[in-house]
Every structure is written in structure tokens, then in C-alpha cells.
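User: My instructor asked us to take a sequence, write out its structure as C-alpha cells, and then describe one feature of it. I'm not sure where to start. Here is the sequence I was given:
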Amino acid sequence: MCGRRLAPHNEQIKTGITGFVNWEGSQVGGVGSLFFAPLSVWRSYIAFLLGLIAEFFCQTLVVVSIIGHIMERAIFRIIDANFNRGREAGRVIEEFCRFCLNSTALTARAKELRHRLCKAASQLDAQMLIAARDSDDDAGFGVQVAGQMKRANLHDCFVAAARRLTEALRTLAEVSQTIDPSAAQVFENLRFAAYTLEKDIFSFSSAAEKLASVRLYVLLTTGADSQNSQIFDTAAACIEGGADCLQLRAKGISDHRTLALAGEIVALCRDGGVVSIINDRVDIAVAAGADGVHLGQNDMPLAQSRKLQLKPMIFGLSTHSTEQLKKAISEGGNYVSLGPVFATGTKPQASPVGLEYISRATELLADTGVGHVAIGGITLENVSQVLQAGAKTIAVCSAVANSSNQKKMCEKLKDKITSS
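Assistant: Let's start with the prediction itself. The C-alpha cells for your sequence are:
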């Protein structure tokens, strides 16, 4: 186009230059003749020079325009690819929460994040995004590294999806900054929301995996008059008898002794493939390397307790009413205790909640992913009633501690629980 603009002047420039050369050659010696050239020759010569300059700048603008178009298309290709990558990863995470963890709350959070991503992308030019897409000639298609698509289980699928999501969001935040800073900020905020969601899902999943097989939960109570050896013998007998989880409940003893006991119980549980829980004391649980901690209504709040964990831990919460149960679910406890079902000598001041509470509670817990443990006054004689009320996991204390054969008692309880 620039060349066409200059075409009408080409003949004039040629004639002018030719005239100038002829004129200068006719002068005596030709020295200094440029200064005495006719005005028409000067005009033609200057027009020629200006034409060259104009042509140079015009061609430069064409090159810059082409480069700009290529870069703009590349920007939209990058955004399109990473939007699709992030949206797909978000769907995998959502399905993991929905079908694997059975958690309505986490599923809703994953879905909300995915929809926020779609809304942020809608701020950009959708037609440009689609037009820039070139899947057939994508240089990254088919490029893989060793083990890139290796997945052993659904948890591996979640981990891979979480990484893809945050990587895609970082790329979107960086690249969209060049065309829409407001959209870039949204993508950046989503990236940090994705980090938090990944952590919460990972912690929830880790606890759920450990709790999935727990059916018989035994509490080991120790006080100032108890001998450590008695607790260790009971713990060993329970593990041999089929207990799936042991909770250490230390009352009226020093922190030094509690920590020592906790360390031994945790080691026994680890060797026996049993879940270890410490009652009340999250600091002791963390220091001893326990799998989790059980918190009562008056213990450290769950949110603050989580901040002390050095690795994903199980957090159990005591509930004695529907209101407390709903609160525990909303706070994100991994499991709740329901009780006391019957009157119990362990906590004589507590009023029994009855079997009705077990039925209501298990209904409320459905589709939350939160586990439960029925507790309080449960014995070999009444455990069937608790199971019929809807309980899956049974916690016992005195029924085992006061038995002359603790291993055998655990075996009988486990048999009733698993055969129900």
C-alpha cells in the first residue's frame, strides 16, 4: 500500500535525477555545481529522498503491525489454552470431592471456583479466544515427559489436577495483564483461593482415608493412680483384638508423663496399623506424632488447632446435640462423636442423648463426608441397638477396660459391629 502511494512520483523523480546529473555534467569541472542547480532539479531530488524515507517508515509500520498481530494472537492462544486447562482441572477436583470424598461442602467450593474462573474469562474477547485456537498445529501437542500421565488412584488424579489448576491460573494472571489488568487480578485472586482449596481437600482426604476402615474405636483412660504398663498392656490387647483406633485420654497427670505415654501409644498404633488419637491436647498430639486429636466443647477451637499441625491430622469434635453437630459440620471436623448414647460412669454428669440422636445425627451427616463415632455407655449387650439406630463406628471405654479379657472383648465387639 505504501509502495502504491509513491508510484505516481517515480517518473518525476527519475526525470529529476537524470536532469540533475545531465545538468551537473555540463558544467565546467562540475565542482560545486550542486549549489547552482536549477530549482526543479532540487525539488525532484528532495522528493526522491523524502520518498525513500516515507517508504522506509511505511515498511517499518507494516512489520510492526504484523509482529503486533502475531503477538496478540499468541496472547489469546495462551489465555485460551490455560483457561481450558484450568477449567478441566477444576472439574476433576470437583468430581473428586463429590464422588470420592462425598463432601457437599468441598464440592460446592470447587464448583464455585470453577464458575468464577469461567466468569473471569468471559470478561475477555470470546471470539478472539476461539479464533486464536489452533489445536492441530499446537507445538505442545503430544509432547510428554516420563510418568506425566501416570495415575495409580483417584488421589493421584486430584493432586495432578490441583497442580494444573494453579499453574494455569498463574499463567492467566501473567499473560492477561498485557490486555486486561482487571481480569488479571481476578485470576491472581483465584490462584490463592485454589491453593487454600487444595490444602483443605488434601487434609480432608488424608483424614477420610484413615477413618474409612475404623469401626471399633477404643478409649484408653489413665489417671494419677494408673500405671503406664497397664495402659500399654491394654493398648496391645485392643490392637490384637481388632481395634481400629485408640484414643489416649489422660486426666490429672503431668504434661511430661502425658507426652511420654502418647509417644508409646502412637508407636504401638503405628506398628499395629491402628489410628492414634489424643484427647483434648493438640500440642501433645503434634509432639507425639499422633494421627489426630479429639476436641471437646470447651477445648481449643478447631480453626486454631489446625494451625498447630505439622502434617494433615484427623480432628474429631464432641457433640451432644443437633446444634453442636451442625456447628461441627460447618467448621470442617473430620469426624464427630455422638453421645453419650447411654448413661456412663466415665462421664456421670452428662445426660444421655439416646438412640434418637444417633438416628438424627447420621441422617444429617449423610453427604457431608464427616465421619461419626457413637459413644457413651455402649457394651456388648446394647451395641446392636446403636448399630440399628444408624451408627457405623462404635467407641467403647469401660466395656473393654473393665473386662477380664480385653483382647477377647474387642474381638466380640468387632464381630458384632462388622456383622451388622
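For the description part of your assignment, you could build on this observation: The chain is about 60% helix and 10% strand. Try explaining in your own words what that tells you about the chain.
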